[in-house]
TrEMBL record, chains A, B:
InterPro entries: Cyclophilin-like_dom_sf, Cyclophilin-type_PPIase_dom. The keyword Repressor does not apply. It holds the Pfam family Pro_isomerase. The lineage of its organism: Bacteria, Pseudomonadati, Pseudomonadota, Alphaproteobacteria, Acetobacterales. This is Peptidylprolyl isomerase. GO terms for molecular function: peptidyl-prolyl cis-trans isomerase activity. Transmembrane segments: none annotated. Signal peptide: none annotated. Keywords: Isomerase. It comes from the Bacteria.
Length: 296, 296
């Protein structure tokens, strides 16, 4: 009987610890669990109306596509381009100015199919949950991935950025990009090259009027939202470069974050799910001032 | 050697059959595979700017909540109400006019937790794929559901409509409703009462500016999109009643539809997934003229 109180106290402590929300866990993550994204991996898209979208590129997963996209940005390919397609519960897509000029000489029109990556060369923090699309799912260096033991591939979660293409064997040259704005269209995994994700300003894309044409394309040029310019952050003046970090997916904080997303025990929840889908574990990211960047 | 051509022909025929898109299968479904939705199960929300949203209610799954919602509509609860919350990749939520008047006398403020339903009383067409949230997933009378052998429950897929509530044991009275506009927040399954889904006009909600307040609530009343009125279709003049059908989820057409969504072999796809998530199999629905309704 005399031990009842301490035992209850231990249970209460565990209960309090479990009652954190995922956001609270992220807010408490130590600085060492956050990783800087270099400005060479950031693409800054400025839209008409002074909205800005920041995209993190994934050169480790699609090096040739990313290299082409950087060259296209340096050649001002998307300046005076536009958002050309908004399909509800699917994608927003953008393109260079129409009619399309020829590709700049430094960009390639023929890229390899960078749909998957050798597993042996790729770090993986697996999620212990089943998935309808891949034998293994988890995270690799901050990215949501699927895997089969042999290969690892980026997955079509909300906000991921991919390369529009025509019919196979075309793999897309990177001139038309899209981002996912609905239920994860994972059927596209390993069928299209994914090249990054939107870090900031996605609502400048998701809140656009849906296109009334086939596949959500705008019928009239006047419906398209103009793009002012797209630049790699590293190519912008230092004062205009955004700085972002992601929560390291091999960190203790990230482990607690996904565990809590899979088992919500904060006050609102009646019954935790004991599971979570890969794309329902968005990797936490945050803007950071230059002086707060993590020392290398 | 002489049999090579017929054999190839058989393979080609199978290949052609497999190369249909899900949309093509739906377009070819016979009339008998479509089921009328009675006007008593439809809620019509008219928004400022002449946009209309049509919602199918699910009285078989949440009878008390649906009954309350119908009574609230009949008492004009949402007339002069507004869209009050738009949280990116999560929900759009609407409410009656503010400050809230007292509940109409015919509506109840205390409803039971209609979070799940006895499996024995509920038809189920299971999907043969694993799920991170439920031991069984599939479809029941046109609705996406999870199950565990004992119970069946509606799932938080894109476009599903639920009842906002405060902390447990509150279950919500139906005065504030929301719809899912992003990656399926399945952690809410069996934690909130789902009462229906948006059939038409969801882009009038999904394309709204995101709220800048906490949880996506609009900070200023002027940001809210006004609701002109919400009525049950059966309570509207006959000439204003919309008519909708869903593809029967126990039909052969629906089976081919989900099988094809799980194994895309149409020309665009390099590699079929051999699987699909429950919420990536949206149940096909369509408007129908009164004279084309299926005879009972």
């Amino acid at each position: 009987m005399r031990r009842a109180f301490p035992v209850l106290c231990v249970l209460a402590c565990i209960s309090v610890a479990q009652a954190q929300t995922p956001d609270e866990i992220v807010a408490q993550a130590p600085k060492s669990d956050w990783q800087d994204i270099p400005p060479s991996d950031l693409l800054v898209m400025r839209l008409s109306g002074h909205r800005q979208v920041v995209i993190q590129l994934a050169p480790d997963f699609a090096p040739e596509h990313v290299r082409n996209i950087v060259r296209l940005a340096q050649a001002k390919w998307w300046d005076d381009g536009a958002i050309v397609r908004v399909q509800d519960n699917y994608v927003v897509q953008w393109a260079g100015r129409a009619p399309h000029p020829s590709l700049p000489s430094q960009a390639s029109a023929h890229l390899p199919a960078e749909y998957e990556h050798p597993a042996a060369k790729t770090p993986l923090t697996p999620l212990p949950f089943t998935d309808s699309y891949a034998p293994i799912v988890g995270f690799s260096a901050g990215w949501p991935v699927g895997g089969d033991g042999q290969h690892i591939w980026l997955t079509h979660c909300y906000g991921m950025v991919g390369v529009g293409r025509d019919m196979p064997p075309d793999t897309g040259d990177g001139t038309e990009l899209y981002t996912v704005i609905g239920e994860a269209p994972r059927q596209l995994d390993r069928n299209i090259a994914l090249v990054g994700r939107v870090l900031d300003g996605i609502d400048a894309l998701t809140a656009l009027p849906r296109g009334k044409g086939e596949m959500g394309f705008y019928r009239e040029a006047a419906e398209r939202l103009p793009i002012a310019q797209v630049r790699r952050a590293a190519d912008l003046p230092v004062s205009e470069q955004p700085h972002w970090q992601f929560l390291r997916t091999d960190s203790a904080s990230f482990a607690r974050y996904w565990q809590t997303r899979a088992n919500r025990r904060d006050r609102f929840f009646v019954r935790p799910a004991n599971g979570v889908a890969l794309c329902n574990v968005p990797v936490p990211t945050r803007p950071v001032s230059l002086e707060n960047r993590t020392p290398r």
